[in-house]
Structures
1.
Amino acid sequence: MKIIVTGSLGNISQPLTEILVKQGHAVTVVSSDPKKEVAIENLGAIPAIGSISDVKFLTNTFKDADAVYAMIPLSFTEPDLSVYLRRMAQNYAQALKEAKTKRIVLMSGWAADLVKGENVEHLFDELDASITIMRPGSFYTNFYQSIDLIKGKGFIGKFLTLRYSGLWALLTGKTGLLMGNYGGDDRIVFVSPKDIADAVAEELLLLPEGKTIRYVGSEEMTCNEAAKIIGSAVGKPWLKWVLLSDKEMLQGLKMAKLPEKLAETLVEMQAVMHSGKTLENFHRSQPKMGKVKLADFAKEFAAVCHQK
């Protein structure tokens, strides 16, 4: 099969590319970074260098493809996240329609249908194609963005946001705390990008009728249980995940100088996770959990952390 993978060599796209190439498919990887061209070729894939904001580029890249994996990278430079997501989704939808792509796997998030303005899945409904929406839980790899703070480096009364597919957290490395307007004993489904890649690879080879939705997770636990696993791996077993109010969270994001509309969207995302609605939807779909446990990831995290 001829398969297009967007997302460059990201946490999902790289292992996905490796899986598909190993299976013998002709894989093209879309990246906006020319410096990734050699690395993509070294994986046995074909690089397509360009931007997903360029509909003509996307259309030409998708032409004659048997399947496309489409993802929209989140941006913290956009003042309005919902407008940005809608614009990028419309670019994809137009290109996929013009290229007459018949199999599409679209990356979304497990809170996407619960947050006003974030859900752009409906923009693909009019396509004459088989579409699967992937709704993964909170990524393990978000913890990588917290390394310096967990180690207590560079924290002087500031907040740092962690992001991806519904996980938004605040950490203070000075006190060894995870913070957000979800946390504490809230139960969350965490997921390894490797398990997501496995699930996407499976879906790309299928051709269900119409639109289907697949939730993906690796392990369910409370936020404090997750914090303890990560903390113990780096020698801070006391690490806690403190639950903030929506108001406190919003104030923290504004301190981080995020645009107001973006900050409000992030708070809403966390609020639905705290409410338990995301977990209810996940359980309702009865998905098969992945293989990678947080404790396995924590070992990798600790190795990277100790190198810093």
2.
Amino acid sequence: MGETYSGRTLAALAVVGIVGPGMAHYYLNRAGYPLVANVVFVVGYLGAAFLLWNGWLRHIDIGSS
């Protein structure tokens, strides 16, 4: 449970998590699958946000001074 991701891994995840779902949404929408495009975009974007939170922000202790 104590594993953290490196900075490069988090940067790659951020780029892939933003660009990947956006490109998939664009191409699926142009192919005539708007509902699938929206689902892929939302799941991909939220999945990347969760992984970034899990690997980067969860370990920051904000509550104690």
3.
Amino acid sequence: MASQTYKLFCMGNPLLDVQVTNGEELLKKYDLKANDAILAEEKHMPIYDEIVKNYKVTYVAGGASQNAARGAAYVLPPNSVVYTGCVGDDGLADQLRAANELAGLREVYQVKQGEKTGACAVVLTGHDRSLVTTLRAAEKFDLSHLSSPVVAPLVDAAEFFYVEGFFLTHGTASVLELSKKASTLSKVFALNLSAPFIPQFFSAQLQSILPYCDIIIANESEAEAYAAASGLPDKTDLAAIARAIAISPKANASRPRTVIFTHGAESTVMVSGATPDSPKVFKVTAIPSEQIVDTNGAGDAFAGGFLGAFVAGKSLDDCVEVGHKMGAMCVKLIGPQFPFPKVSVL
């Protein structure tokens, strides 16, 4: 199988999402915010047993980069996308494999014997989602896995790379390995900021990767957290923040950096390092409230659509529009998934 080549190589924390609705009491009890993503602290650990015991739960394959990889696989022809991350040798990993197979996503997991696969408690309140992640095996990913006999040929053959910001909490060396390699060979490396706490608390790790990034994707709260952490003068002007990132130093100067900030049902902003003073604004068609089932994974769906279209050779403007279509389809379903039979979005 390793001889098969895939254009897009994705890396991240594979997680099984455990979703509950009407979680207002859980937010209060565990001191959670309605539209946030955090790593579980000691005080949050009982939530995983509690939701399974006291709530009707839905299990959905998750993990930011894995969600985006499934989105890109949805857009692209078969055998276009491969994904890696670390899982345990348990039933949770089997559920992830089944979801990936259904989506046409090839995975090359590192499997840690005796470890548990990571999980994410998804607490839904209205149209907001609060994510509480326990990484477990996911944070035990080894850099050596990238040079293993199965994975190394896939890395070498890929033309595009995508990594979630969450990976910077434990795997910066692996992200540097991929991003530097991509930059040196003039391949495309994309990074998603993933959550406000990444630019806030992992700023040094983020800054070490930034010179090798060709595409940065984030939402408005992540952009604002970046602005605050970086001491930018304007903490809320998304176009100004995108410009600052777009023109920051870049190892491969031959390809301008592109920065895309989504903002829910508000407009999406895109700035290119080639024309940093000319931000592009894309209107989003708001989905009627009664059609929104679940916003979990909508940002990953956008990233997957954008990446899939980019790999397919579409213009940046078209890539944003495909991202919007994928996000719109995702919020009408439970969890980060897409309708089958497939709907053409390109």
